[in-house]
Design the sequence.
């Protein structure tokens, strides 16, 4: 914390189908973080999992070329896994007399990775080992939120309404006898339905199917993207409502939005490519059409916000998330559909509508990260007992495990 | 003396410039002397246009007249050859640039050698002339210019000469490179799968790699790397021994007999896939029988316990299958043949893609395959890949799952819908009659708006080129609403084909240049129309 500033390491990219979206989110976050309070260290994980750092990573143009590593000023690095370091080690790739390993201390990590190897608890696990504070949900909540099958199980147990679905593994799908059973179960549940890879955050592999034939095709596709697939009954006549939440213990909720799209869901292209030539701003979620606040009654709004809060607590969430609901306003039916623990552009637009600008959201997220970290330090991990002394005296053979 | 050398250098500059231009064509012809000579013979206008001849030879003549009239010879020669020469030699706009010149190490070596030889001839001539006398006489300037002119005229031949000079260097470099690849392949335990055929090689390779990647670690040669050296480059650079690849898939191309055998001798394939034997590159092979023998080299190179995969819908491939070698052979059919092990039927072709049932007759399993790919030939390509993947232990279900996510290759009957609502079928790399017919059939499926074909025709078919283009014209008339021919050697044959049908001639558009075709395109094409670019790059149009 030199010169009173907090050094924030923004991690993005990674081995995920949402790699590119993550680059955009990271650029937004790095621009939004208040430069008088934070020193920013960009940390880019390539598609094949190499860690890079360097000034050019602040510029989106760096990512237009084929190989970012060849850009001048970018170097390979790694986050030391030893708790004694708490920072980036950048060893020289070519040995030389004047080349020294560089070290960059980090105070807080701000992950902006979407999907696998980042949003799913894996990166969070690494950060726990490193013992650094980090923004967003922890290992467990990230892992649960990233698995649609598990999310449903946890929510159902907490008494929160979820949409009916048939879930199965790729392994089952590939066996003829199971495949028939699965297709029959889906038929019994009824069409139309949505096929979804269980652990992808984006819309890739998601498709609406109206009959057995289309189900077969789209499950074949979805099974490429996840080892678990679920087929969810379509809630006919529903609208989509999203709500963002933030907090560790006292969870605050944002105003609600109703995303608009011609289809019943946003396809990948629609979600991220719409708005054409625009720069960073338009490339993210901001380009999509939406109504804020969502045009539903105050009671329903309050109900949804309450469910959002409870749902986030149920999965053990701390930090932030955007929660997507399927709602039939006239019937007062509300289903919690999914969590995005690292939503595109961090749902800045929702907080802005709630009266909190992007910089304030980032401040709060960093504060929450530090708060959670302090709380973790109150948990006891080290408990001294006389075992070693005992063994040293008696020898190993005397020990029963 | 200095003046003579300087003049010689002016000439050298022209020669270097010319060598550089010809180098692209020499590279395109695979650095082969005979092919390059054939090209030179048939394309005189491209390297010895009348403009050059009149400009330069006339130039020498006029220079002499002017000197005789008393104009200062030194200045005249310089002025003439630097200014006038520049305008004469100024490059014409080249009409087709499909493949750029690539400064590979070899290309650099032989081009530089040609530069050096060309420059040396001129400088030596100037030196030899200048050594005799102190004062520079007009006849010496003339002599230097004549030497320059002659060297300029034969400049294209400097390239093969450079190649011959560098031959010992090249062959030892190549040998080293090849042996390195051989050693590396031996160290790894990859199984090598070879693919050959007159067409469909790249597609089949890409599909097979995608399917096998569902279960294995696969390295495939990128793009159309299909020559011995190309394959060696991939092995040397990309075959990471640490990564533990299970398969190395390579396509094998040939222009003459023996090339595939040579590749096989290096990579030692365990499995060979034979797609089709057609009249591609007939110009270079001489006869279809030679093509057949050349493609069969892949099967001959397999070990007795290797695996052959054959598309028996092709009668020549079927003959290869019936030669009963190697022990394990799989036949595939999309035409309902009775005996093959793998068959595709109920093939449905929509604008969304292909849907068909694949049956493994040995296990009596049937599975529905869906893919975004279009074009019937792709069913065959997928089926060949399926047979291979099945051999290596993937189930039909696993294969179907991978097939569902196959992506079309760029420029290979790739369909995309432009934001304005025009559908583009990009088949720019298509150069064979069967592929062309497939593409036209696909075009015929789009019934919303007009169906427009833009093509310069298909080439490199030897003696049957005209007949095939005529046939193409007839097929186009059957499937298109509008036919746009960009002027080429094949235009008359195509035109004959179209006009032999009752196709409305108002919808047959023939343009002298790509420019005019582009103009027509931009004024005419409307949302809802579908445009097929056959053997023509669409980039210029859109």
Sequence:
């Amino acid at each position: 914390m030199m010169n009173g500033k907090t050094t924030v390491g923004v991690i993005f990219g990674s081995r995920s189908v949402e790699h590119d979206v993550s680059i955009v989110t990271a650029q937004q976050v790095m621009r939004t973080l208040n430069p008088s309070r934070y020193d920013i260290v960009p940390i880019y994980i390539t598609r094949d999992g190499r860690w890079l750092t360097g000034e050019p990573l602040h510029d989106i143009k760096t990512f237009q070329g084929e190989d970012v590593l060849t850009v001048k000023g970018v170097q390979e690095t790694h986050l030391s896994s030893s708790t004694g370091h708490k920072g980036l080690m950048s060893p020289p790739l070519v040995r030389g007399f004047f080349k020294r390993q560089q070290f960059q201390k980090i105070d807080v990590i701000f992950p902006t990775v979407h999907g696998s190897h980042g949003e799913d608890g894996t990166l969070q696990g690494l950060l726990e080992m490193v013992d650094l504070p980090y923004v967003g949900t922890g290992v467990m909540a990230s892992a649960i939120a990233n698995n649609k099958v598990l999310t449903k199980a946890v929510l159902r147990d907490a008494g929160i309404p979820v949409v009916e679905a048939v879930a199965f593994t790729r392994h089952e799908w590939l066996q003829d006898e199971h495949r028939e059973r699965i297709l029959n179960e889906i038929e019994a549940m009824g069409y139309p339905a949505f096929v979804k890879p269980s652990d992808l955050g984006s819309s890739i592999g998601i498709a609406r199917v109206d009959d057995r034939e289309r189900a077969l095709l789209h499950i074949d596709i979805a099974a490429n993207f996840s080892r678990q697939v679920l087929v969810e009954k379509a809630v006919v006549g529903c609208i989509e409502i999203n709500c963002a939440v933030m907090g560790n213990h006292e969870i605050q909720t944002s105003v609600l939005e109703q995303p608009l799209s011609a289809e019943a869901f946003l396809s990948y292209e629609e979600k991220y490519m719409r708005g054409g030539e625009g720069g960073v701003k338009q490339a993210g979620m901001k380009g999509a059409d939406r109504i804020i606040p969502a045009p539903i009654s105050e009671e329903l709004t309050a109900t949804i916000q309450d469910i959002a809060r409870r749902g986030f607590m149920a999965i053990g969430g701390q930090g932030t998330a955007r929660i997507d609901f399927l709602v039939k306003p006239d019937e007062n039916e509300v289903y919690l559909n999914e969590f995005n623990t690292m939503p595109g552009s961090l749902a800045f637009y929702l907080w802005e509508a709630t009266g909190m600008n992007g910089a304030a959201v980032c401040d709060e997220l960093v504060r929450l990260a530090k708060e959670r970290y302090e709380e973790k330090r109150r948990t006891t991990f080290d408990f001294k007992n006389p075992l070693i002394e005992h063994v040293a005296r008696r020898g190993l053979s005397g020990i029963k495990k | 003396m200095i003046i003579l050398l300087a003049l010689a250098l002016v000439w050298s500059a022209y020669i270097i410039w010319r060598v550089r231009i010809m180098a692209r064509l020499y590279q395109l012809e695979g650095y082969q002397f005979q092919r390059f000579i054939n090209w030179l013979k048939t394309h005189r206008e491209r390297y010895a246009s009348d403009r050059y001849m009149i400009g330069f030879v006339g130039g020498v003549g006029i220079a002499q007249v002017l000197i005789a009239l008393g104009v200062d010879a030194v200045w005249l020669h310089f002025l003439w050859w630097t200014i006038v020469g520049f305008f004469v030699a100024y490059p014409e706009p080249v009409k087709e640039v499909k493949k750029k010149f690539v400064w590979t190490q070899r290309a650099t070596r032989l081009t530089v050698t040609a530069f050096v030889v060309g420059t040396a001839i001129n400088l030596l001539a100037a030196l030899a002339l200048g050594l005799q006398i102190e004062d520079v006489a007009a006849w010496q300037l003339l002599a230097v210019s004549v030497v320059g002119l002659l060297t300029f005229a034969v400049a294209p031949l400097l390239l093969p000469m450079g190649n011959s000079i560098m031959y010992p260097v090249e062959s030892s470099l190549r040998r080293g490179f090849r042996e390195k690849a051989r050693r590396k392949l031996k160290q790894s335990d990859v199984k090598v799968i070879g693919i050959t055929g007159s067409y469909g090689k790249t597609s089949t390779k890409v599909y097979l790699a995608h399917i096998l990647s569902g279960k294995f670690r696969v390295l495939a040669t990128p793009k159309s790397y299909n020559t011995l050296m190309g394959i060696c480059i991939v092995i040397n650079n990309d075959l990471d021994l640490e990564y533990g690849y299970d398969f190395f898939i390579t396509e094998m191309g040939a222009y003459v007999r023996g090339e595939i055998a040579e590749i096989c001798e290096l990579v030692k394939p365990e499995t060979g896939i034979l797609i089709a034997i057609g009249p591609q590159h007939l110009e270079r092979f001489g006869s279809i029988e030679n093509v057949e023998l050349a493609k069969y080299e892949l099967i001959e190179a397999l070990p007795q316990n290797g695996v052959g995969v054959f598309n028996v819908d092709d009668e020549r491939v079927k003959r290869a299958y019936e030669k009963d070698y190697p022990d394990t052979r799989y036949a595939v059919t999309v035409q309902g043949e009775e005996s093959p092990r793998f068959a595709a039927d109920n093939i449905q072709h929509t604008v969304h893609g292909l849907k068909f049932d694949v049956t493994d007759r040995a296990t009596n399993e049937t599975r529905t395959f869906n893919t975004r790919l279009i074009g019937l030939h792709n069913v065959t390509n997928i089926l060949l890949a399926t047979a291979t993947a099945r051999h290596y232990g993937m189930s039909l279900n696993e294969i179907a799952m991978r097939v569902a996510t196959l992506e079309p290759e760029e420029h290979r009957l790739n369909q995309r819908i432009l934001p304005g609502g025009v559908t583009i079928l990009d088949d720019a790399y298509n150069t064979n009659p069967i592929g062309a017919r497939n593409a036209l059939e696909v075009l015929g499926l789009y019934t919303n708006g007009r169906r427009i074909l833009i093509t310069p025709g298909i080439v490199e078919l030897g003696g049957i080129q005209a007949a095939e283009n005529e046939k193409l014209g007839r097929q186009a008339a059957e499937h298109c609403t509008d036919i746009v021919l960009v002027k080429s050697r094949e235009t008359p044959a195509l035109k004959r084909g179209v006009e032999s049908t009752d196709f409305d001639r108002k919808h047959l558009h023939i343009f002298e240049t790509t420019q005019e075709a582009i103009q027509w395109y931009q004024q005419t094409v409307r949302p809802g129309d579908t445009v097929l670019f056959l053997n023509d790059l669409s980039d210029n149009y859109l």
User: Anything to note?
Assistant: The radius of gyration of chain B is 28 Å. Residues 155-187 of chain B form the longest helix (33 residues). Residues 221 and 250 of chain B are 5 Å apart (CA to CA).
